[in-house]
Amino acid sequence: MTRSVRLAAALGVGWAGAALWAHGAVILQPLAEPGSRWWGYAENNSYWPREVRWGAVVAVAVVLFAVADTGRRRGRTVTAGALLWIGADVALDRADPGHAALIPAAVLAGAAITATALWLCRTSDRAGISGLPAVLCLLAAFSLLTLESPTDEEPELVPSATAGYLLFAVAALVCVLAALPGTWSRRRQGLVLVIGATGLSLALVPGPFAADAVLCLALVAATAVVTRPWTGPARALGVALAHGLILPGVLMFALVTLLEAARPFTALAGNPPINSADSDPSIVLVVVVATLVWAGLGRLFMVVTAELHPEPEPAAGKPATSWEAA
C-alpha cells in the first residue's frame, strides 16, 4: 500500500472508531447504569456498552499498527496510545458528562488519532506484518456480533454491535492488505474475495451461534493462510487446521483466566459491581490476550521446528518454490 492509501485507511477507521467510542461512552453507557429503564442489577453482560467502546479502541489501534512506517517503534506507540485511550474511557465513564459531551469527545479522540497516524505514516517505508492483526480483528468482530445484554431489549444494542462488527471487518481488510506482498497470485485474490464475502454474510444474514462460530474460524484459518507465503500446501493446511482446531482452546483458556479482568475497571468507573454470583469479563480483552498468547505459541513452534527440522538450502541458481506462485 502507498503512503496515501495507508494514511487514508488509518484516518477512515480512526475517525469512525472515535465516533463509535464517543457514542458508546455518552449515549450507550447510561443505558447500562442505575436509572435506566433496562437496568435490573449488575450481571456479567450488564456493561455491554464497554465492549463496544473498547472494541473501537482496539480496532483503531490495530489499524495504526498495520499501516505504520518501519522503525518508528510502532508497537510501543500504538500500545501507549491505546492504554491512554482506555484511561480516558474510564474517566469519561466515571464523570457521566451527558449528551453534550458527544461531539467534543469524538473530535478530541479523532484529533489524537489523526496526529498519531500522521506521525506513524511519515514515509513510504512500510514495515511488513503477519496475519495476526487480521486474525485479532476477525475474532473481535465475531465477539461483538454476538453481544448481549441482560434484557436484549435495548433498541441501541443490535445497531451498536453491528457498527462495531463492521469497524472490525474493515480493520481486518486493512490488515490483510497490509500483510499481503506487492504482487498477488490468483489464489490469493480468490481467497481474499471469499474472506470478504463470508465476513459480510455474517453481518447481513446472522445464523445460529454454532454455525457463525464455525464460519468465523474458517475466516480466521483462511486469513492465516493467505497472508503468509507458506512453502507447500501441506504446511498451509496445517496452519489452517491449527487455527480452526487449537485456537478455540486458547480462546477458552483466556476466557476462563480473565473472568474477573474487567472488575477493576468497573470499580474505577464508579459503576455498581457485578453481583458475587456472576463474573465480570471483557470479551474484547479476552480476544486481545488470546491473540497475543497465540502469537507467542506460534513463534515458539516455529523456533522449535527450525531447530529440529532445518530447511535445506535451495540449489545454486534455483529459487525456493512456494505454493503461492500458482
Structural notes for this entry:
The chain starts with a helix and ends in an 18-residue tail after the last helix. Helix 2 (48-67) packs antiparallel against helix 5 (132-145), helix 2 (48-67) runs parallel beside helix 6 and helix 2 (48-67) crosses helix 11. The protein is built from eleven helices and no strands. The chain has one domain. The chain has helices at 3-28, 48-67, 74-95, 102-120, 132-145, 157-179, 186-204, 209-226, 233-257, 263-268, 283-308.
Q: Which structural traits does this protein have?
A:
disordered C terminus, 0% strand, mainly alpha, 326 residues
Structural domains: how many: 1
Which shape, going by the Cα principal axes? globular
Could you describe the largest sheet, including whether it forms a barrel?
Answer: none
Roughly how many Å apart are the termini? Answer: 22 Å
Question: Structural class, from secondary structure content?
Answer: mainly alpha
SS element count, helices: 11
Poorly predicted ranges: 318-326
Range of strand content: under 5%
- Average of the residue pLDDT scores: 83
Total strands: the figure is: 0
The helix content is: 55-70%
Series of secondary-structure elements, N-terminal to C-terminal: HHHHHHHHHHH
What order do the helices and strands come in, and which of them pair?
Blueprint: H1 3-28, H2 48-67, H3 74-95, H4 102-120, H5 132-145, H6 157-179, H7 186-204, H8 209-226, H9 233-257, H10 263-268, H11 283-308
Helix pairs in contact: 1-2, 1-4, 1-6, 2-3, 2-4, 2-5, 2-6, 2-11, 5-6, 5-8, 5-11, 6-7, 7-8, 8-9, 9-11
